[in-house]
């Protein structure tokens, strides 16, 4: 069971990664387009970042999303959705739960995303070589990938290059639950 709140874990991981890369807060801010003050608040554990902010940091620092969320070498290999999301977006209508953090051997990470009716999340394009695999567990889910719209229901899946603009939407009146696997062509 997690004893460290997710925003504190994100802060510790961000600070550790930034220092390993030899980056000042100013340099990290320039790379990520996240202000120095915001990065400092995240590192201190004073701020719960949104999904968008975590993706900006991950993309700007050229690291995986879950490397900012991971626990230190957890020995558990069975995953279940937590009671509290790791990160949220769109005023809490989109919730992301990390199932398996980034694994450098497989170069994948796995999440569950819940999108409330009317919820929307627009992702920043990821770096070249990132592929997304999304399976709809329940509900109806609409995704726009590089300007093309696709609507999927339960037991349907989609894969696409994550390096293009993409948005997730739930235009139905029921909760949509998605399993998302990210594959990184390069090891981080």
Description of the structure:
With 188 residues, this protein is of the alpha+beta class. It folds into two domains: 6-68, lambda repressor-like DNA-binding domains (434 Repressor (Amino-terminal Domain)); 87-183, Jelly Rolls. The protein is 23% helix and 33% strand. It has four helices and ten strands. It has helices at residues 6-20, 25-32, 36-44, 51-61, and strands spanning 87-89, 94-103, 108-115, 120-123, 131-138, 140-145, 148-153, 157-161, 166-169, 176-183. The strands form two sheets. A six-stranded antiparallel sheet has the order 1-2-3-10-5-8, with helices on one face. Strand 1 and strand 2 (94-103) form a beta hairpin. Helix 2 packs across helix 4 (51-61). The two termini are 26 Å apart. InterPro entries: Cro/C1-type_HTH, Cupin_2, Lambda_DNA-bd_dom_sf, RmlC-like_jellyroll, RmlC_Cupin_sf, TransReg_Diox_bact_type. Residues 14-68 form the HTH cro/C1-type domain. Pfam families: Cupin_2, HTH_3. Keywords: DNA-binding, Transcription, Transcription regulation. This is XRE family transcriptional regulator.
